[in-house]
């Protein structure tokens, strides 16, 4: 009796590897159970993800190769990967040895199900014999076949797909990327089809994105003239006063300059930096400053400036285009809706009335000049032509909300409303104009209102009074929605309305002298026009938090005058009985329209207007702070020789920075060394350099770290050390570094580099480095470094190139928005903040210039490329790949092809081509004009100017040969005194062209190309050092403020405390209590929290002196000098409701809870004492 036995698959594989024969795998029986099919999605997802480790041809790939292939495609042509076999092998040659083993059924494809729910049987694919490839053994081929299966059919399908997509080669790559990557990844890398289209279109990227929202501007002189008038009124009116804060605004802005700017934006596709730099003559009133000192010295130097007026014109242009786009869309919708209504209504009278209303609405829409006026027109249209009701499909339907106006209208009360006299439109015409003779006088008729209304009673309106009430409501609503009336009321309300505030009971208990709302809690009748800063945002926030009660009203005299004017134009002059009855109805209509519709609507508009003005002001303040940060020049050496001090650090060996960030131990204090290009050279961890312990081991570790730092500085010879000012421990760190330098000079004077003679140690703000430390871009640029190293690198780079370091945080993550620059910036949305950031970065980058060859060699410098005029993040990424591939360029003309002519026209003047980066080692000649702000279109003008200057020096221009003419520019740069003698005004008149501003720029650039116009770097002042190191602000630490500190030490005559930030505070014995300072009776211990009042702050010693005397604490703090002129403090008078509420709260002495003790009584402490006292 023998029994069939079966081994494990591993045993069979072991026998086969050792060439042991005689034991073979048993054939699977026909009725053998099959593996269960797992209905999971893992295999499905793996197959579709595209991240397989093997490509279609069965070749193994690494993950890096897979991603590279996905992003950039295969480097070899696709046709080479697929070779057809001419010879076919008969299927009968496949033997029994080619059958799958038992593991072949382990991975099972899901069965397909047809529409009837039946399993679709797939046609069995006939197996082909293995093909012998050259240089591949049969065993290896068999093993590959066992692993990957037969791929002939897949290859054939793949080839057909490639041939089908060969017409559009880019489509294959796009489809593959979309299949393999999540959409947000493609969007971050700017690799979506939309991004590719933007890259290929020869229009500046920011203009493309703007026109995508606003639509293409309408060409025509009439449109430009109308828009320029509107923008001019906006700029010179009160609406944009907050745009410039306290700066001089009463300047002459020429409308013709606005027309020129609009033409350059719309037709020529020029960006603001290009217009400001190379088209000054066309818009002088928008770019010139009225500062007499600057005009007098304009030939000596030109400082960087934020062209706010040009950006304002562009912003207003975008608003205008959006307004026109909406008006066009509304007009199309109105026409379609009116046609539908005309087909639906058969009543001739109603059709005539609708026709009149429609034409009136269209005319009002065409005349609308603001978003509010368009909304008024839209409200009137929706009132008279409500949107059609859409039948809902489904079992459940939403309840339909019908307004009282629509109910009255369907009941036919519009006929009664029309008999009240003048329509809402006629009332508006009488209010805005003195007299309309053709309108005639009102004729009330002989019938009384009740008699007329009796003819329109129905089930919904059973009595005449109900009919009149509904008709009055219709008339009032129509007046409240009439655009002409609202425009008239809006002008009066915005001019005369006042704002008043008073604190709520909660606000009275919260708001003190040092509260953020101090100074705005008691405003009395402050006019809307007097709100010029961000004060309203604080009031709005306080109202939301129920700390303030805010009212916006018309003064009573203005309200009475307005109502009187309306009655004069709406009531009749007749004195008959029926006329008086009709006038009573008209008075009720006016009261209803003004008190319930117009004035509440105006209050809402006033709130939105105040919010818009406050946000506009806050945006500009935020922008100023940001501009001050990015317009600072890099640190420069303090050389004794002034000539060396003026070097623009073009030599890459000029500025080497050592940056240091303090660490508590984990991580340790870290030093990094950066070369002149900002690249990381070396890292040193010195965790014991700032130890204060006097132990032998600790002191030895400190000396060892000092020696290591000494060697680190000796090896790299930095010009400056930047210490991150993150906390008070950095003061000791700076002293320790000075100690190392003194030791280096004393012990190793010969090893000191001569360039370190004027060595400096400066504090640096760590706010931007900390953002960089936690950003995604830092992981890409410094992948193998720790977080503190990334922070130190950013600290040093910010000292070398503030603009480029800030731009690094302006990528897809927009980490720069987390940089705290203004105490009220939380009122701005991220989009509003980034709009300002982008304006500032674009303006600053183009005035500073972008070094093409330096960035090609050092990637982190590419961060500012997206802000060059004409470019953007998408076009910049494409140009970056081109520049990296080229390595170096030697002429701006080489960029025409990759950029396109229009983009090149915008960008070329701001791209520096000089000997930097890899180009420094090249012997190829670079024209001096390539490293100037002179635009290529003005190269001929610059050369002619140089020739004329040389001619004035004794050489005739026509006597110069070609070589001498080429050397003219170099000649005038070497002899700048000749350029100084050139009178630009006279030379401009001699050439007969209005190019004075351009010639002045050319003259300055010929003297020194791309001269740094930024504000020179200045070390932090003592006050700035105090705020940086302490981490406190002036709002937190100021004289007279009540603060809380922690007790650390109690001495004989003083108490030493600390703030949460580590700042030291001292309470002298004389200032502790009015009763004196007695250690024995002192109820105070270390670790206790002490409340005190700041007497003064010694910023040099980093000490705050406090007083805890009750007499000082209770004294009312000094009054602020910056109180609002409309501030009127009043005593809080509690109303009866407030008193009752407070009394009720006073009775609640315990938290309500279930108490089941039989002897429990709800008593106060005083009552409990009385109960417990023995009865006398």
From TrEMBL:
Belongs to the SPT6 family. Signal peptide: none annotated. Keywords: Nucleus, Transcription, Transcription regulation. It comes from the Eukaryota. InterPro entries: NA-bd_OB-fold, RNaseH-like_sf, RuvA_2-like, S1_domain, Spt6-like_S1, Spt6_acidic_N_dom, Spt6_death-like, Spt6_HHH. PANTHER family: TRANSCRIPTION ELONGATION FACTOR SPT6 (PTHR10145). It is found in: Nucleus. GO terms for molecular function: histone binding; nucleic acid binding; nucleosome binding. This is Transcription elongation factor spt6. GO terms for cellular component: transcription elongation factor complex. One of its GO terms (biological process) is embryo development ending in seed dormancy. Residues 17-100 are annotated as: Disordered. Transcription elongation factor that enhances transcription elongation by RNA polymerase II (RNAPII). SMART domains: YqgFc (SM00732). It comes from Aegilops tauschii subsp. strangulata.
């Amino acid at each position: 009796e023998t029994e069939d036995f079966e081994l494990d698959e591993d045993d069979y594989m072991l026998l086969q590897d050792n060439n042991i024969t005689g034991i073979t795998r048993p054939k699977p029986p026909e009725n053998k159970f099959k593996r269960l099919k797992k209905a999971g999605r893992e295999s499905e997802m793996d197959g579709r993800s595209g991240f397989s480790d093997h490509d279609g041809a069965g070749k193994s790939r690494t993950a890096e190769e897979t991603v590279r292939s996905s992003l950039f495609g295969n480097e070899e042509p696709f046709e080479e990967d697929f070779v057809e076999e001419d010879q076919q092998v008969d299927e009968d040659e496949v033997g029994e040895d080619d059958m799958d083993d038992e593991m072949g059924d382990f991975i099972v494809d899901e069965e397909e199900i047809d529409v009837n729910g039946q399993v679709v049987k797939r046609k069995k694919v006939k197996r082909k014999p293995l093909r012998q490839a050259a240089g591949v053994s049969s065993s290896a081929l068999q093993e590959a076949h066992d692993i990957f299966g037969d791929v002939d059919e897949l290859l054939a399908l793949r080839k057909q797909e490639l041939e089908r997509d060969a017409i559009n080669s880019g489509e294959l790559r796009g489809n593959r990327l979309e299949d393999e990557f999540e959409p947000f990844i493609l969007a971050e890398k700017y690799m979506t089809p939309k991004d590719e289209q933007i890259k290929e279109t020869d229009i500046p990227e920011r203009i493309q994105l703007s026109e995508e929202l606003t639509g293409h501007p309408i060409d025509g002189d009439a449109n430009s003239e109308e828009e320029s008038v509107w923008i001019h009124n906006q700029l010179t009116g009160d609406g944009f006063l907050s745009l410039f804060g306290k700066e001089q605004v009463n300047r002459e802005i020429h409308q013709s300059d606005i027309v020129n700017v609009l033409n350059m934006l719309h037709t020529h596709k020029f960006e603001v930096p290009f217009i400001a730099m190379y088209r000054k003559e066309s818009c002088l009133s928008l770019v010139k400053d009225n500062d007499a000192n600057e005009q007098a010295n304009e030939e000596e130097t030109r400082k960087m400036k934020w062209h706010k007026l040009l950006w304002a014109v562009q912003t207003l242009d975008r608003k205008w285009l959006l307004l026109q786009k909406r008006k066009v869309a509304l007009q199309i919708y109105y026409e379609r809706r009116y046609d539908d209504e005309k087909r639906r209504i058969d009543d001739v009278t109603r059709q005539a009335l609708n026709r009149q209303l429609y034409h009136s609405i269209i005319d009002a829409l065409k005349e609308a000049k603001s978003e509010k006026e368009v909304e008024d027109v839209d409200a009137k249209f929706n009132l008279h032509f409500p949107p059609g009701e859409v039948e809902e499909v489904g079992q459940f339907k939403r309840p339909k909300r019908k307004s009282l106006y629509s109910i009255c209208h369907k009941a036919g009360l519009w006929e009664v409303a029309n008999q009240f006299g003048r329509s809402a439109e006629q009332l508006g015409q009488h209010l805005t104009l003195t007299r309309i003779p053709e309108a005639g006088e009102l004729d009330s008729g002989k019938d009384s209102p009740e008699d007329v209304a009796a003819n329109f009673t129905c089930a919904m309106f059973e009595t005449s009074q109900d009919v009149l009430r509904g008709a009055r409501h219709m008339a009032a609503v129509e007046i409240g929605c009439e655009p002409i009336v609202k425009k008239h009321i809006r002008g009066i309300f915005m001019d005369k309305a006042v704002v008043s505030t008073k604190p709520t009971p909660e606000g009275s208990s919260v708001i003190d002298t040092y509260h953020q709302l101090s100074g705005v809690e008691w405003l009395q009748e402050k006019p809307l026009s007097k709100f010029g800063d961000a004060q309203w945002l604080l009031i709005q926030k306080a109202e939301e938090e129920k700390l303030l009660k805010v009212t916006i009203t018309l003064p009573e005299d203005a309200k009475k005058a307005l109502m009187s004017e309306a009655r004069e134009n709406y009531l009749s002059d007749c004195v008959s009985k029926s006329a008086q009855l009709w006038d009573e109805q008209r008075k009720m209509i006016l009261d209803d329209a003004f008190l319930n519709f117009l004035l509440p609507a105006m209050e809402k508009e006033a709130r939105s207007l105040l919010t818009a003005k406050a946000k506009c002001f806050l945006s500009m303040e935020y922008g100023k702070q940001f501009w001050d940060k990015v317009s600072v020049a890099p640190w420069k050496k303090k050389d004794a020789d002034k000539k060396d001090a003026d070097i623009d650090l073009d030599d890459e060996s000029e500025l080497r920075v050592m940056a240091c960030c303090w660490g508590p131990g984990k991580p340790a204090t870290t030093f990094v060394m950066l070369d002149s290009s900002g690249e990381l050279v070396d890292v040193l961890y010195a965790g014991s350099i700032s130890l204060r312990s006097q132990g032998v081991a600790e002191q030895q570790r400190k000396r060892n770290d000092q020696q290591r730092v000494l060697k680190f500085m000796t090896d790299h010879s930095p010009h400056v050390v930047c210490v991150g000012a993150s906390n008070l421990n950095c003061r000791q760190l700076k002293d320790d570094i000075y100690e190392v330098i003194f030791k280096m000079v004393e012990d190793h004077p010969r090893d000191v580099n001569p360039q370190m003679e004027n060595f400096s140690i400066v504090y640096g703000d760590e706010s931007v480095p900390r953002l960089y430390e936690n950003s995604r871009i830092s992981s890409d640029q410094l992948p193998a470094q720790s977080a503190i190293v990334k922070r130190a690198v950013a600290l040093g780079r910010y000292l070398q190139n503030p603009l480029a370091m800030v731009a690094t945080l302006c990528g897809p993550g927009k980490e720069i928005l987390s940089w705290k620059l203004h105490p009220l910036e939380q009122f701005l949305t991220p989009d509003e903040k980034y709009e300002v950031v982008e304006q500032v970065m674009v303006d600053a980058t183009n005035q500073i210039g972008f070094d093409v060859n330096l960035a090609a060699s050092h990637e982190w410098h590419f961060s500012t490329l997206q802000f060059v005029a004409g470019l953007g993040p998408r076009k910049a990424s494409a140009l970056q790949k081109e520049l990296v591939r080229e390595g170096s360029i030697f002429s701006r003309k080489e960029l025409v092809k990759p950029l396109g002519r229009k983009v090149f026209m915008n960008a070329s003047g701001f791209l520096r081509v000089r000997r930097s980066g890899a180009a420094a080692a090249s012997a190829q000649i670079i024209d001096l004009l390539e490293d100037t702000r002179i635009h290529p279109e003005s190269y001929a003008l610059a050369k002619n100017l140089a020739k004329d200057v040389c001619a004035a020096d004794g050489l005739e221009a026509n006597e110069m040969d070609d070589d001498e003419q080429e050397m003219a520019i170099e000649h005038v740069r070497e002899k700048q005194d000749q350029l100084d003698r050139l009178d630009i005004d006279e030379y401009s008149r001699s050439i007969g062209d209005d190019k004075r501003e351009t010639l002045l720029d050319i003259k300055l650039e010929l003297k020194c190309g791309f001269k740094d116009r930024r504000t020179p770097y200045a070390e932090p002042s003592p006050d700035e050092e105090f705020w940086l190191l302490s981490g406190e602000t002036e709002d937190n630490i100021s004289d007279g403020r009540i603060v809380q500190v922690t007790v650390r030490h109690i001495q004989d005559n003083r108490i030493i405390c600390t703030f949460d930030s580590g700042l030291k505070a001292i309470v002298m014995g004389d200032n502790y209590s009015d009763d004196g300072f007695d250690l024995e009776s002192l109820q105070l211990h270390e670790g206790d929290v002490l409340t005190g009042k700041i007497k003064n702050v010694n910023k040099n010693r980093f000490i705050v002196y406090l007083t805890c005397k009750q007499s000082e604490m209770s004294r009312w703090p000094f009054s602020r000098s910056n109180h609002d002129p409309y501030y009127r403090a009043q005593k809080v008078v509690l109303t009866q409701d407030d008193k009752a509420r407070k009394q009720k709260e006073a009775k609640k002495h315990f938290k309500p809870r279930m108490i089941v003790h039989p002897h429990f009584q709800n008593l106060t402490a005083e009552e409990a004492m009385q109960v417990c006292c023995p009865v006398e």
